[in-house]
Amino acid sequence: MNDAVKQENADAANVIVAADAVGMTFDGAHDALDDVSLAIEGGEFVSIIGPSGCGKSTLLRLIAGLIEPTAGTLTVGGLLPAEARRAWHPMAFVFQDATLLPWRNVIDNIQLPLELEGTDLSVSRTIVPESLKLIGLSDADAAKYPRMLSGGMRMRVSLARALVTDPALLMLDEPFGALDEMTRQRLNEDLLRIWTEKKWTALFVTHNVAEAVFLSQRILVMGATPGRIIADVTVPFAYPRSPELRADADFAQLTGEVSARLREASS
Amino acid sequence: MNGLWRRVLHDILPPVGMFLLVVLSWQLATIVFRPKAYLLPSPVAVAEAARENAGQLISAMALTAAAAACGFVASLIVGTLIAFAFSQSRLVRSSCYPYAIFLQTVPIVAIAPLIIIWFDYGFQSVVVVAFIISLFPIIANVTAGLISVDNDLVDLFRLHNASRWQLLWKLRLPNAVPYLVTGAKTASGLAVIGAIVGEFFAGYGAERFGLGYLVRQTSDQLKTAELFAAVIASTVLGIGIFGAASMAGMTILARWSGTNE
Questions:
Q1: What ipTM describes this predicted complex?
Q2: Taking an 8 Å Cβ-Cβ cutoff, which residues of chain B contact chain A?
Q3: Rounded CA gap, A59 and A62, in Å?
Q4: Do residue B257 and residue A61 have CB atoms under 8 angstroms apart?
Q5: Domains located in chain A, CATH noted
Q6: Prior bond of B43 cis (ω within 30°)
């Protein structure tokens, strides 16, 4: 479905998200974002980290075309985000809460994006179970309702729902922030496993430095008032990354560096 | 079995005990103080009156129940449609909602004569009163349910290019179901009150009447024991209809969130 677009991106140095001097002001008040420029390549895993109120969620919502910037230009696959969203179906979004529909069971929740986009039911029947399996949910879970699931399980369903459309660009807005550390780490590992297999572009907003370092190839550190990018840190560790990486000395050092940048941003 | 006993002990025994205590004190009071029968009949006298007029009471209850049910169903349908209109436009909502509150605040006793002028004495006027008095909780709750949707979910739907129709059908309407259930419970109790108030004013006549008419007639004639019986029958009807609405609501909610799977 996205082949043509992917090809086009390959021509344009494979940049999928391009922001040039993007600014965002809400109600003419303070600048949520000021002069943000960035280029994200197709298949990259990029984390965005920063203090609260630095506009990281705003940046994601801009890229998703849910809001429009008040300054600068922003393109996704060479198109305005809202156009890109309609022209192809490249985007998926995972929110901080699982945001499942309580009146739908697991399988019907996962199927929702396909329904909205008018995907053939016969196609849905094959890809929904695949997505369920990919994220590590059993057939027994399929018929359960959200209220019967733990927080971690709900987030898995939310991820499966995002992945079911086979997105080119997956945006995650602090998805694991409310989970306990063990669950968070396990979900990080599963997320990376799927990413190495599917290679969508990932934009991952978090305030957890270790999580950002473990997952990403690049970390964008943002500062607040006005929201802006103050550092672009490359993470050199090769994939696949094992859980043991978290105990590595280099890992600890890089985590320390990013934390220091973050402290600068917050002060 | 153990759980059942515990339930009986904690949930059923106390209110039953309280009931017996009140009835017993009442009976004793009538024996000791001997009030005139039209002021305070004894429980035994009330029970007697109820037994003697059982056929009349039951047919009156049935008629009142029918009027309340018609008014309730009408307010479910009309209230949901109005809420739907309110949810579609902020302008419609802000220009009409204050007048919807009018339904809540108007003393029904004050407009009952108007309703009789328009709809004439009889069943239809009673239904209209029950309808008017039970409409507002449906409008208010369903409107809230249609509007108060998680913003992230709206974003999710937009992100996948959902149509307005899909947003309504797959998100707003199902979201409003628990609100509708809450509103319907309140409305069911009010519909019974509305029907009785309606009958009080628009009661039908000597051969065919509901509880409200019976209350008025027995009080006019100072048949206080019969009046008590009619009041108790009204209460039983109210509890019955509220209970039925609550149980229907619980069943719907259980299906809605998969509790009975």
A1: 0.90
A2: 150, 152-153, 155-162, 166, 170-171, 174, 177, 256-259, 261
A3: 5
A4: no
A5: 3-90+169-176+200-266 (3.40.50.300), 96-166 (no CATH)
A6: no
